[in-house]
Amino acid sequence: MPAWVDGKLFFYADSPPRRLMDLFSLKWSSMVLHALYHWPEKRARTGELQRSLQGISKKMLFQTLKELEQRGLIARHVYDVVPPKVDYRLTPLGLTFAAPIEQMYQWGLENQAALDAMEDNLRKATDVPSDAPPSLDPSASAD
Questions:
Q1: What's the helix, strand, coil split of the chain in %, to 5?
Q2: Which domains, ranges and CATH numbers included, belong to the chain?
Q3: Centroid of chain to Cα 87
Q4: What is the pTM of this model?
Q5: For site-directed labelling of 124, which of 26, 47, 88, 118 has its Cα 20 to 30 A away?
Q6: Alpha helices in 45-134, H assignment, sequence order
């Protein structure tokens, strides 16, 4: 738990907020959970996920899927067919984490002006032309 020490809030490594934020240390984890949450039957094949998440590389998608599977948030299902077929599904634990992610995404939809202002501030601070979309920043990376 976070603790107050001398009037200051400390977030110890084992505190629930730190443990939750650890999930988001992998850039694409919330997007993958969000995508699976909205996919029919809460499952999708790797190629479908990659096409639905513009900008994610195949390597990063596989790393994200592996991490989420190790955490028990998604399950990998291998079909016994030729050619091989694999899909990924939200687990009950994954559904538990998807609910607050959905609230965050809804907030983003409702507060697009605030997001635009934040991006404008970043562009001004980094001298990127205001008409250039964020993805054109040469220092940006898809991973």
A1: 55, 15, 30
A2: 12-130 (1.10.10.10)
A3: 18
A4: 0.76
A5: 26
A6: 46-52, 58-70, 92-110, 112-126
